[in-house]
Design brief:
Length: 325
């Protein structure tokens, strides 16, 4: 049985997501921030097997905004050779795992290569499709054989989503999402991967197909003002229950930490797709270096200017802890 402090990891690259106020599970400050990181093993407990000091690992937790981090063994994913560039591994963790597990387990998305002749192509809508997790939802739905629709907010992101395989890209700055869905897809959307909230959520809800599934994985548009966690809000013009009842549809929530048992197998699947060249990881080109730029990275993320994953690089090279703990 491993000790409480299984590993000490040098955080070389990490993402810039911080727990939002009220986001489950609720955390009362003070607490460490950061949900995911990639680094090298600097020290490990005597009972840990399957890795060694110096190995490159990815891991999840709530203490990733740090240069060194104590990590439980079950939270660690060893990256086998050939090791991709470290920034390209980061998106596979919370963002990639959320897309992969949520689409399969909650969205019940079928795979063409597994279903064979019984496979039925569906219309899959991904909101914030050029973001950290949306990029994977687009690619995984396309790899599964579905017709993929993605939303974004500028023409450079439109171009990106077309490269990733989107069949229809909706720029919500120049087109009205609700009208496009109603006019171009009158039979409705079978599966929605939704992370924006507000009017975007309402448009998705109103345009579900019969027996459609709307998977809510976040409400990034409402995090900063706290409205995502309040009961006040305009709501929909028709009661949500009636909209769902009329189509035998459903709205389903997804929180990655409640699907721990699926994480390792899905990470291995995503990494294999990446190493085989069948999956792209889009990392925003804006560079953030060191702990002192974490706040800048968070502000940049909320500005909605990013394309793909925003990462912060903490150290330029791996280090090994030589002193005895």
């Amino acid at each position: 049985m491993a000790s409480i402090l299984d590993l000490l990891v040098v955080c070389m690259v990490m993402n810039n997501l911080t727990p939002s106020v009220g986001y489950p599970p609720r955390l009362d400050p003070p607490y460490d921030c950061g949900f995911e990181a990639v680094g090298t093993v600097a020290w490990m407990g005597k009972d840990v097997v399957g890795m060694k000091v110096g190995d490159v690992v990815g891991y999840t937790g709530i203490n990733c905004f740090s240069e060194y981090a104590p990590v439980m063994y079950k939270q660690v994913f060893v990256i086998p050779a050939p090791v991709p560039p470290l920034p390209n591994i980061i998106p596979l963790l919370v963002s990639g795992l959320t897309a992969s597990i949520a689409l399969e387990q909650i969205g019940e998305m079928k795979q063409k290569d597994k279903e064979g002749a019984s496979f039925k192509q569906e219309r899959v809508l991904v909101t914030a499709a050029a973001g950290g997790t949306g990029q994977f939802a687009v690619q995984l739905a396309k790899l599964a054989g579905h017709f993929v629709i993605g939303t974004c907010g500028d023409e450079s992101k439109v171009a990106l989503l077309k490269r990733l395989g989107c069949d229809r890209v909706i720029n919500y700055k120049t087109e009205k999402l609700h009208e496009v869905l109603r006019n171009e897809f009158p039979e409705g959307i079978n599966l929605v991967y939704e992370s924006v909230g507000g009017d975007t959520y309402e448009a998705c809800l109103s345009n579900l197909a019969v027996r459609g599934r709307l998977v809510v994985i976040g409400m990034v548009g409402s995090y900063q003002d706290g409205s995502a966690f309040s009961r006040s809000g305009s709501g929909s013009q028709a009661p949500v229950g009636m909209k769902l009842l009329a189509k035998s549809a459903s709205v389903r929530g997804f929180l990655l930490t409640q699907f721990q048992r699926h994480m390792r197998s899905h990470f291995q699947r995503l990494l294999a797709l990446l190493q085989a060249g069948n999956l792209q990881t889009v990392v925003d080109k804006t560079q953030f270096m060191g702990l002192e730029q974490v706040a800048d990275a968070v502000d940049y993320l909320y500005s909605a200017k990013n394309q793909g994953k925003v990462v912060v690089q903490l150290t330029k090279e791996a280090r090994t802890l030589t002193s005895k703990l």
